[in-house]
């Protein structure tokens, strides 16, 4: 592996405004799907590098402290003059989170190519997705980074759709298909698919996407677990883990982090391991998916985007 197998994560690090335990009050919590994945990787013991633009305001400083405190490498983070982005989170009676955003002109989306010079040095994989790959002007820069990374690293992608901001689902789907031709590892939720491809069964989408280039595609089904397919024709599923759901904030990101961490632990990341990843045996894939489902369940069992540590995940699996 390259340089201890560093995994870079590119995209937004924003602040979630979430309901507090005391009724009528709100709390500010670190968030942003890519940032959550980076934290999840670091908490699972994987060297994680964040590629983000962090504001100099109070919220940006809080985000920086959160990432540093969890052991994420910030050597390639941009010190941005713009304000930090906000996500307003509403949690329903079933614990499912809905998001609204305040992101006009904020730090996360103003990427220039020069700001990413050297960002891919020494990495074994690059993960991105969500708003980072759809909000301009930065989206075009990060999408080009994904294309560039494909030559020297495993590329991981999560569409993580946000309908209130992403516009026309048909247009977003075209961009998703472009990323599928670049990505090795793809994770998507059934909620995403209901927006992108209403009425199409998840299994049908899985078959289609697995034939568009990725080595591995996983469709998460909330409490019902996950469906997965490989480029070599394996089709499998893993049931969800029973858990008292507090909220679902960050659950999908914990799944993505656990997926990359599990592949990392099995030496299946990096361009030299691409064929091995495409041919991952069914039993080994099931082991990987069990870790992912368990990590997501642990996150659902507590408030906010709090991914498990390696010790917590290990204890839950045994």
Automatic annotation (TrEMBL):
EC number: 2.7.1.-
CDD domains: bac_FRK
Keyword line: ATP-binding, Kinase, Nucleotide-binding, Transferase
Cited SUPFAM superfamilies: Ribokinase-like (SSF53613)
Gene3D superfamilies, per the entry: 3.40.1190.20
Listed GO MF terms: kinase activity
Protein name as catalogued: Carbohydrate kinase
Organism name: Pseudonocardia lutea
């Amino acid at each position: 592996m390259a340089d201890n197998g560093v995994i870079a994560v590119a995209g937004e690090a924003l602040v979630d405004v979430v309901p507090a335990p005391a009724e009528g009050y709100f709390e500010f919590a670190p968030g942003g799907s890519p940032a959550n994945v980076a934290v999840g990787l670091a908490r699972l013991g994987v060297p994680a590098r964040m590629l983000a633009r962090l504001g100099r305001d109070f919220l940006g400083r809080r985000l920086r402290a959160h990432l540093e405190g969890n052991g994420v490498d910030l050597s390639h983070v941009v010190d941005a003059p713009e304000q930090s982005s906000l996500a307003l989170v509403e949690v329903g009676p079933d614990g499912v989170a809905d998001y609204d955003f305040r992101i006009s002109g904020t730090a996360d989306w103003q990427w220039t190519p020069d700001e990413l010079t050297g960002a891919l040095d020494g990495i074994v994989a690059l993960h991105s997705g969500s708003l980072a790959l759809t909000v301009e002007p930065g989206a075009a820069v990060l999408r080009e980074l994904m294309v560039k990374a494909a030559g020297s690293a495993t590329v991981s992608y999560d569409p993580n759709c946000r309908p209130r901001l992403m516009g026309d689902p048909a247009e977003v789907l075209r961009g998703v298909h472009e990323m599928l031709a670049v990505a090795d590892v793809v994770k998507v939720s059934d909620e995403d698919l209901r927006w992108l491809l209403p009425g199409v069964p998840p299994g049908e989408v899985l078959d289609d996407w697995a034939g568009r280039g990725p080595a591995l595609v996983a469709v998460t089904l909330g409490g019902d677990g996950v469906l997965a397919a490989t480029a070599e024709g394996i089709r499998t599923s893993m049931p969800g883990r029973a858990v008292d759901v507090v909220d679902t904030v960050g659950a999908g990101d914990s799944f993505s982090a656990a997926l990359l961490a599990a592949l990392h632990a099995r030496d299946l990341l990096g361009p030299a391991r691409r064929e091995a990843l495409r041919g991952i045996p069914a039993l080994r894939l099931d082991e990987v998916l069990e870790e992912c489902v368990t990590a997501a369940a642990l996150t659902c069992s507590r408030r906010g985007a709090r991914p498990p540590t390696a010790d917590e995940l290990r204890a839950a699996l045994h």
